[in-house]
Amino acid sequence: MEKDNQNIILVLLESPYAGKTKKEIDHNVKYARLCMKDCFDRGEYPFASHLLYTQPGILNDNIPEERQKGIQAGLAWGRHASKTVVYCDYGISKSMMEGMKKADSEGREVEKRYLYYSSGRIIDKWK
């Protein structure tokens, strides 16, 4: 069943991405995917630039200029979102804070969420 355009809720998803090891990044990607699923379960249409732009052949998160380009592209897309949702189970990173400040400056609602508390599911850190 398709929703009409008036009922579409676009959300900009913020969750941790960067890590010191591949294992940490893999954990954060797994967590971000669960966050996206949570948004869909709520009837929202999420966008997570850190899952899209960091794929091989797009932008390299280890190159500061490319990382910044990805962050700016995600924030630009966010201007079209109804709200910014911030998943906080593993804290709020500097980049996530930047996204929250941008949403606030643009008058967009910021909603903090926790997967563990809201659904009872959790993933082991760095497992």
Break the fold down into its secondary structure elements and pairings:
Layout: E1 10-14, H1 22-41, E2 45-47, H2 49-52, H3 64-78, E3 83-87, H4 94-105, E4 109-113, H5 115-119
Parallel strand pairs: 1-2, 1-3, 3-4
Number of domains: 1
Order of helices and strands: EHEHHEHEH
Number of DSSP helical runs: 5
The helix-and-strand class reads alpha/beta
Strand content: 5-15%
Strand adjacency order, main sheet: 2-1-3-4
CATH topology: Rossmann fold
CATH superfamily membership: Hypothetical protein PA1492
Protein described:
The chain is α/β, with parallel strands linked by helices. It has one domain (9-119): Hypothetical protein PA1492 (Rossmann fold). It is built from 5 helices and 4 strands; from the N terminus they run βαβααβαβα. Helix 1 links the parallel strand 1 and strand 2. The chain is globular.
Key phrases:
127 residues, alpha/beta, Rossmann fold, four-stranded parallel sheet, 5 helices, 4 strands, globular
Would you kindly provide a brief summary of this structure?
With 127 residues, the protein is α/β, with parallel strands linked by helices. 44% of the residues lie in helices and 14% in strands.
